[in-house]
Write a structure and sequence with these properties.
By secondary structure, this protein is α+β, with helices and mostly antiparallel strands. Helices cover 26% and strands 21% of the residues. The chain is built from seven helices and eleven strands. The protein has helices spanning 4-18, 41-45, 123-131, 143-149, 156-161, 171-181, 196-213; strands spanning 25-28, 34-36, 50-56, 59-64, 68-73, 79-83, 93-98, 105-109, 116-120, 254-258, 261-265. The chain has a five-stranded mixed sheet, sandwiched between helices. A four-stranded antiparallel sheet has the order 1-7-8-6. A two-stranded antiparallel ribbon has the order 10-11. A hairpin with a 2-residue loop joins strand 3 (50-56) and strand 4 (59-64). Helix 1 crosses helix 7 (196-213) and helix 6 packs across helix 7 (196-213). It is elongated, with a radius of gyration of 20 Å. The structure holds a DNA duplex.
DNA sequence: CGCATTTCCTGGAGGC
DNA sequence: TGCCTCCAGGAAATGC
């Protein structure tokens, strides 16, 4: 399940391989995963060059010439890969964007279809409707901004998962960061006063940076653009370790439901 | 408006 | 082996 580190890994690879390349064709196999400008994608983007590849929270933004952006969201099971044109097309491949023969084909595959691509031809629509409701990037967040976010009675886990408050964390990195800071996931956010709030922000940033360095966590679906797995799952302290001993204190890791999500934590290192 | 709950979807796991 | 049920979860939609 791609969160910020997985998406950042994908963006870096796409940037290296696609910047300044020319789109030659586009094929939509499933129209209902494509949103935004309703005109046929092939006619719309063929001939344009890739100007930039960037990330906002968990979204991948491919900017083409003449003010057109393709915004990919991978949802749960989405993958973006670059394949040779004649590679077999995997099941649930919904969109293919062809580049030159020596580059290959960008393929968007998403079995569960929680993801999609937004074709944005107007900057206003892009900022206002799609990305306007996203909170700040956690890696760019200062202590003051974080304290403002914490001014709520909600459980800290629910708050960190709320993309309109802070954008990019998902279930894995929320659990890992809370463990690293020694904070129980059900703690009311406004109970986190200094120095704990600062510790938590540092834990969030450190967890994300380490995960990016390991090219993300592969549990099931996630792969990098060239099909490799990430390796951060080997450094997980709580996520997916239910019943196994805490690496700090030896107590068994527990799994509970918080904010409707399965939540792993150490009852001894993260007391309420 | 803010926040909690429900809903979408498929593949894989586990029970029998 | 085959069939069934359950579960994973990002975020939009819905319901207070």
């Amino acid at each position: 399940m791609p969160e910020l580190p997985e998406v950042e890994t994908i963006v870096r690879e796409l940037r290296t391989r696609l910047t300044r390349r020319r789109v030659e064709s586009a094929t939509v196999e499933r129209a209902d995963v494509v949103h935004g400008d309703p005109r046929p994608l092939d006619a719309l983007i063929a001939g344009r060059l890739v100007k930039t590849v960037d990330r906002r929270a968990k979204r991948i933004i491919i900017e083409l010439t003449r003010n057109l952006r393709l915004v990919f969201h991978l949802g749960m099971s989405g993958r973006l890969t670059i394949d040779d044109h004649d590679n077999p097309i995997a099941k649930h491949t919904h969109v293919r964007i062809g580049f030159g023969r020596e580059i290959g084909e960008l393929r968007f595959r998403d079995p569960r279809r929680f993801g999609g691509v937004w074709v944005l031809t107007d900057a206003g629509e892009y900022v206002g409707k799609r990305l306007g409701r996203l909170g700040p990037e956690p890696l760019e967040l200062a202590a003051k901004g974080f304290r403002r976010i914490l001014a709520s009675r909600r459980q800290i886990k629910a708050l960190l998962l709320d993309q309109s408050k802070i954008a990019g964390l998902g279930n894995i990195y929320t659990d890992e960061a809370l463990y690293a800071a020694g904070v129980h996931p059900m703690t009311p956010a406004d109970a986190l006063v200094e120095p704990i709030a600062g510790q938590l922000l540092r834990a969030i940033k450190q967890t994300l940076r380490r995960a990016i360095r390991a090219r993300g966590s592969t549990l099931m679906d996630y792969r990098t653009v060239d099909g490799q797995t990430g390796s951060f799952q080997r450094q997980h302290r709580v996520y997916g370790r239910t019943g196994q001993p805490c690496r700090k204190c030896g107590a068994p890791i527990e799994r509970i439901i918080v904010a409707g999500r399965s939540t792993c934590f150490c009852p001894r290192c993260q007391p309420l």
